[in-house]
Amino acid sequence: MNRKKYIFEKLILGFLKVFISCLFAFSVSWCWKTFFNDEVPVPFYRLGHYFMFAIVLLSYVFIAKVYGAFEIGTRAVTDVAFSQVVTIFIWQVICYMLFSLLSFRLVRIKEFFIMFVIFSVFAMLWAAFANRVYFIVHKPKRTIVVYGNIDSYLSLKGLRSMDRRFNVIKTINATKIPLDELFGKIMEVDAVFLCGVASEYRNEVVKFCIANRRVAYVKPKISDTIIRGSRTIQLLNIPIYRCARAGNNFLYYAVKRAADIVFSLFCIIITSPVMLITAAAIRIYDGGPVFYRQERYTKDRKIFKIIKFRSMRVDAEKDGIARLACENDERITPVGRIIRKLRIDELPQLFNILGGSMSVVGPRPERPEIFSEYEDTMPEFALRLQVKAGLTGYAQVYGKYNTPPYDKLQMDLLYISKQSIIEDLKLMLVTFKIIFVSDSTEGVKSGQITAERKKKK
């Protein structure tokens, strides 16, 4: 890509992001100065107003980054608009708490409600406009897909639907073309996607792309994800990647456990009315048990019983076969459909977190039967058990219910390699957003059997 054109594109998109950030921050700062400043015990003056502007600006940018509200061009415009609205809501709550703290009382909420409505409408218009500008300045990249086997090729089947970003002109089987010939074809395009390709072959392609100003998109393997999270050390005067089993310092685990207790207690208290109504609805519908307990694996293969609100018929697995919920699953009750869609069925897991068998953030716990089946085809699946199972994680935030297990495994390993208090906090914040995204609860293909229990003789 021409460097001047690249810089121009970055400047245009950067201006759009700075514009909306500064506009919102200025509006909130003006609101503070006009309606609330005179009511505080010690009013702010010029430097104080600058400080307030900096605080609200940085908080908006941080939350927008967490929720992907600036990811124009890489995500659907509706998703960006929705992310902006969620960002504004969270941000306005924080600003309200800040203003109340400075005023030593709860301030009026009317101004914040008006700002939320105006900002939300403007943000949606901004998302549509910015998206249009993005695709005016960014032409679709002429792209080739290089794959190693049919499964890896099918994993990128959705790429052709992204025709506004990638113009796929050819797909190539890496086993049927020598490197020299492939290099010639790469010089005719702007980008190349690599999936399921042998490491040595892939490395040569990536180096060639970098040397010749072409963009290489690589679908990582499990080993790549593990190495990505390794620690770099200097040994024998050379950089060495130190790959080891996940293990954090005592302070991290202590803070994480304390946060789990505080979070679960707080959520149990504020959601107790919802849980009581849900329990009553389940009981009234068919008279069956309210809760559903099931054995799951957590850290180091320890088994615990997860608690959920029952969303299926009592005899959902009377044939002894473990199945994931599928699209239009007849086993799901009418009440179950509602609570699954709204994620209410997950709320009792707060008691698992409070008891210490689960954490707020971590890989989702699997049933032993299903886990064994996955492990038979993916021995690396056991690597998820390096940490305690969680209510939410990378696979829940960035994947879907029906995301392939291999891809979910990579997401879980990515979290394990990057776990920190900041990362946990970010995932907890993003989880709030996906509650309202319906496609994250899509079922697997109808009739898919994931494991079969051993029948007792």
Mean pLDDT: 86
Number of strands: 12
Compute the number of structural domains.
3
Distance between the termini: 67 Å
Biggest sheet strand line-up: 2-1-3-4
Structural class: alpha/beta
Proportion in helices: 40-55%
Radius of gyration of CA atoms, rounded to a whole number: 25 Å
* Strand portion: 5-15%
Which consecutive residue ranges, at least 5 long each, have pLDDT under 50? 440-457
Largest sheet: 4 strands, parallel
* Order of H and E elements: HHHHEHEHEHEHEEHEEEHHEHEHHHE
Written description of the protein model:
By secondary structure, the protein is α/β, with parallel strands linked by helices. It has three domains: 3-137, no CATH class; 141-219, Rossmann fold (3-Layer(aba) Sandwich), CATH 3.40.50; 250-452, no CATH class. 52% of the residues lie in helices and 13% in strands. Helix 5 (150-154) links the parallel strand 1 and strand 2. Helix 1 (3-36) crosses helix 2, helix 3 (77-103) runs antiparallel to helix 4 (110-137) and helix 9 packs antiparallel against helix 11 (349-355). The termini are far apart.
Describe the secondary structure blueprint for this structure:
Blueprint: H1 3-36, H2 46-66, H3 77-103, H4 110-137, E1 141-147, H5 150-154, E2 166-173, H6 179-186, E3 191-195, H7 199-211, E4 215-218, H8 222-228, E5 231-235, E6 238-242, H9 250-286, E7 291-297, E8 303-309, E9 321-323, H10 334-341, H11 349-355, E10 359-361, H12 368-377, E11 390-392, H13 394-398, H14 405-418, H15 421-434, E12 449-452
Parallel strand pairs: 1-2, 1-3, 3-4, 10-11
Antiparallel strand pairs: 5-6, 7-8, 9-12
Helix pairs in contact: 1-2, 1-4, 2-3, 3-4, 6-7, 8-14, 9-11
